[in-house]
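ok so heres the complex, two chains, lmk if somethin looks off
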Amino acid sequence: MGTLAAGPLAETALVPQAGEAAKPEQAPLKLVVGVNDVYCKDSSCKCIEKIATRQYAEFCRKLKERCNIELDLAYFLEPYELDKAFLAGKFDAVLCKPWLVFHRPEGRSGQMARVADLQDLHGDTGLWGIVIVPKDSAIKKLSEISGRPLAIGQPDAYEKHQAALALLQREGITIPNDKLVEKASCLECIDLLLKGSVDAAVISNYALTADCAVDVTTPESFRVLGQTEKIPLTSFMIDLKRVSRDDAARVQQALTGFAGAELPSSMSGGGFVKPVSWKVPRAIP
Amino acid sequence: MAACLSQPAFIYAQANPEYVPGLSFGKQDHLQQVSSLAVGKDDFLVVASMNKVLIYDPANEQSVRSFDTGLTNITAVATEGETIYVFTRNTETKDVEYQGRKFKQVIPVGAVCKKFAWDGTPLGDVVLKDLKDVINAKVIAGKIYVADFGGTHTVRSFDEKTGAPLKSYGKDLRLCCGILDFAVDPKSNDVLIGNLGAFKLERYSASGPLKSSFGKRGEDLASFQGCCNPVSVAVLPDGNLVVVEKDPSQVKIYTPQGKLISPFKDLQELVKGCNRVSVAVDTKGRVYLGVNSKERFVLQYVPKS
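and the predicted structre for the whole thing:
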């Protein structure tokens, strides 16, 4: 069975600063931002167009008007492409799953800070892995997957790899290496499960409702045996080598300053909130 | 019947040319959309766009002929000999509820296949029995193959003369985004299907069973990317495969066994988001790609000599 990454843990969230709310007369601030948001129409698959309805144009317009902060958003359907562009230094900030940024403990990732978390359409900011089996499976409890073929994610997907391995460890479940299959997408894991190549799979919690899997199967086709720890689903992360800490704090205040009726309806009910604490192995900037 | 997988690798080793952009077809015709592509007699390119069929000499960017098919939205075009087959789907709109929200959904309820002569003269219809949908099609050796996305989620074959159903290919495909495309290997009649939800290109024998497959999602060039890929495939004259991915747009040549030979370089965006990409090849190995992005046209890639 795979092992968890070892190393000192460091906070990824920018600790909220006390101070005045950002005001329009403040100096203009422009950030180029790479975006891969599960629930955004411009960075999601067509098969979830009824779910991924969020659009940022109106939010950005209000942000500029109210806080003099301009966001120049570049949308990516493919996280690998966003990652490449991020590593190439194309952005001042990124809005995506934080593990995409923090899965490399060294380099550019070390200078990133999460200034805000983004809510999903139900007001949740969490991402977690779920252990599923087919509805008619003889496996009834999580402990029963011990020793059986299991599909999990690859190391660049925390909730279905590192968090999944931690869950197995916590529960005393052992999967022999030759029965642990790593796949890069939830769909591939689901494919293996539906074909009977594995007995259980760990997928992202949203995979059956807000991913291409909605075209392939239904949540009712599976039973959930367990879930991993929760981590942030989508965070706004700023490069502190390119943006001052003061400006990062200003962006944090500005993003999280839209509440209730002030939040444009085009954000589909999900706005920015202060980032929860999440520590990962990383080099301290 | 040739069995590609059992042929020695050296047959393909000589045919690993680099592909470079060639001509662009349809810009002067102001295509509203590239709905489907086929290659007909003398390697002429056949393009379906909305209700029309346009025919291009492979050496000339201006169409030599076009005709109105009478169908409002062609979903597929295919050729055999001097006959052009044009397909569409009849649909109904239904109210559906998903996760507590109500939507209108278009449901396919029947397939239409019309035949035309090379000059556009109607040659009658083929009634494909018990078929509800057709979003891609090929005609080879007296058989009509269709992608029945909305019905059985498989590729099906029919007798060209009688319209009687023959075989189904692709049990348990993981399809999404309304995409189901395929190719038929002219040498073996194997059916190649882009099982995009499983990130696999699958080869089914002419008799139906899965013969082989390759592919996975991954960051390396040989793997497939995006939320689901590959979306389409074509078979080159040497047996190698042209495999197409939508957003992010990629076209790569693989051996029949799935070894990456080369990617198309300097490829422009073929399509934005999750939409199909039509691909066709001719007898000289020239590749045609339907571009439905900022512009709508057919992009030719040619082997660099």
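quick notes: Chain A has six helices and 15 strands. thats all i got rn
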